[in-house]
Input
Amino acid sequence: MSGLEIEGLSKRFGAFTAVDRVSLNVAKGSFVCLLGPSGCGKTTLLRMVAGLEEPSEGRVRLEGEDITSTPTHQRNIGMVFQSLALFTHLSVGQNIAYALRIRGIAREAQDRRVHELLEMVHLGSFADRPVAKLSGGQRQRVAIARALAHSPRLFLLDEPLSALDAKLREAMQVELRQLQQSLGITTVVVTHDQREAMTMADLVVVMGEGRVRQAATPIEVYRNPADAFVAGFIGSTNLLPVTRAANGVALLWGSPVDGLAMPAELASGVLSVRPEDVHLQAAGTGTLDARITFVRDLGATVETFLCTNDTTFISVASPRERGPFAVGHTVGVSLSAARCLVFAA
Amino acid sequence: MTARVLRWFLLGALALFLAAPLIIVAGVSINEKQSLDFPPRGFSLAWYLEIFTNREWRNALWASLGLAACSAALAVAVAFPLAWFGWRRVAPWTKVLQLLGVAPFVLPPVITALGLLTFWATTGFYGQAWTAVISHATFFVTLPLVTLTLGFASIDRPVVEAAATMGADDATVLRTVVLPLILPYVISGYAFTFVLSLNEYIIAYMTVGFTLETLPIKIFNALRYGYTPTMASVTVLFISLAAVVFGLIARHGDLPRLLGAPAAERE
Amino acid sequence: MRREPPRRLADYAPLVFPGLMLLVFFVVPFGTMTAVSFFRRQQGGFYTPDFVLDNYGRFLSPFFGNVLLFSILLAVAVALACVALALPFTFTLSRMARHVQVLWLVALLSVLSLSEVIIGFAWSTLLSRTAGITNILVALGLMESPRALVPSLGAVLTAMIYQALPYTVLVMYPALVRLDPTLLEAARTLGASPLRAFFNVVVPALRNTLVATVIMVFVFALGSYLLPQILGRPTHWTLSVLITDQAVYQSNMPFSAAMAVFLVLLSLALVGLTVLVGRKDDGQ
Output
């Protein structure tokens, strides 16, 4: 059965286009992340799916049913907001029971479901606690439990983990993914953190300037980014200018990169090479020379900042692999051609 | 160091200035004889009892309380839909209506009083008790309007959206989410209006002064025609009531915020 | 429940009740008052619907001119005195701990809620011969015998300042409480003493607020209808006192209404000025 279908959805605010003809197919029960920098339209897209914004054009279908003009409260969705939006005038249990209460569900059934959900989010004894007395992580779980109480067919989350500190965030990412898998609910999460998307998603949708740049599995997006934007956004990468040599090889500042051919249609472009694919060796060897301007030793890895032709790029290696190079040294740089990608500028 | 001394001096002087007349009045109110004496000669709480035992004063007390209770309710009833509309809808001319709601309070009360006097005289209802209720409600509508506008503005919009995603339609959201959150502001708007209506003189006087005697009107008449320490005891009663009401609002809500300060920082 | 412009006619429903109430009981009374100001006064307390300018014509008499001038000067004096007193106080208040501020705010609100009648009564008692402060001075040996300090201009002025001071503090409060504390601190690191920093940095930063407050308090003071009458002599009567007197005791409604219309226009003009000054501040 189909899950969520978005067809040509756009949103314009006067002359500004926030979302530009986005089409997307989300399989039922899968976990999708809308990923992109702030202002790329991902939150607006999510809000249109929720019915909180009216699309300028396009359609939204959920499990085959066209919900484009259905008001929010009839769409049977569950949503977690960035600010969590917990009801401060109700206790934890009352917050979670809200959806059931307004549907007229009997009191004992409400209590049973609340208990079930609290167990699911590991907050078993919190039913009577006032919302104000909870920590950030606990509020997060209450917001999730509350959104799922009425067994919605779509689960939407808008930057749900952004208010948490780093360690808690990582733990919650895993928990959220496991929860979704056990429930089998179609889930769409908006985030600007690509590590979060890589951890949780079945499908990563990278957005920029209101358009979908690439929609693929996390590892596909990482290894084969569709363009320079996606390459720059996912993981870290170096973006360097290349031109075409007479024999079709890519030239990096005039030096040929062994084994890397320019795409047929490009005379010049942008080379994307991940820091882990930039290797340091003795000066005079490799593709070109560069000077080390800064070294960041993070214990498990060492980041080396290299400078040539007024451009700084980064090499990453474990301390064991890296040679004894220090700031101020000139080194030779070689690239793993198989892992490099060339895009239009 | 001198800044500290200066500060204490400033606060102390102001406190004395504000309290002095009230201290004198309080002293006069416990005077044994029916004369204006300070320091008081003798001690007697008779003048406080007088408010309740003397029929004229008691009637005036009931009139004042009744007027305050009704006009405050009416003022809130007028202000609520206005504040709600301003929050719910985007319309440029709600500003006009809001301005209209603020106007009565900004102009000198004697003008509003005179306007209402001419109005009731023209319409032929001049002197009837309910005209005072409407007059006070109109004059004081600014107070609940300000507290309610503030209250609505403090509602986190995602909270309303979250309720919608869980299946609540507009009416249900209003009933289960908005009203509980706005209730403290309704109460403080009512309380402000109640206290100010209780003390209000000129509008009450000009609209129903010769048919209905409220306490301020009675005090004024006593001022002109015959002094009695009950005036003083009523004054003490009024200011105590005001202090209690405002104190309660302060205890259960954020008084500085109601008066324009930014919200208190979260713990 | 999205925040959107009203679309159907039914969406405007909430405005019907307040709109009607305000229109009928606030706007219309001003209409009737303006109409009455053009009516012809009749002896015995009645007036006939007419259209004469006699009532406004009385504005041109020296008597009225004196009253107007006195009212304005008195209100200006009260406004300036109140702002001068309230500024250091409110500034100090805004720097104090929140719970202390609350105590003071409750006290100020309580005094503000007192009607002019009660304030008049309280001050006439304070300045009377038998119960006033002169008794304390006699007890301290600074005076020979107690004396009444009313009626006098000083009494009127003091009581009006008493009445307007809480109002002044509350009008200034929002701006002062939001004042950036680092402004003063920066001035002090640059070498200015606290007092100097206050006058050189804080006061100029609050210039627009202070101007707006003076205007607001001026309008407020113009509205004193009882204090000049209770605590002063007939020469101390202000425009508002005259309005009340003419309407209630002299039964001259048309003249009273004319003066009231004049006062409305003056007040509205001044409040409009305040808003303009406030706008200029935002633009900075």
Notes: DSSP finds 13 helices and two strands in chain C. The interface with chain A takes residues 2 of chain C (CB under 8 Å). The first strand of chain C starts at residue 40 and ends at 41.
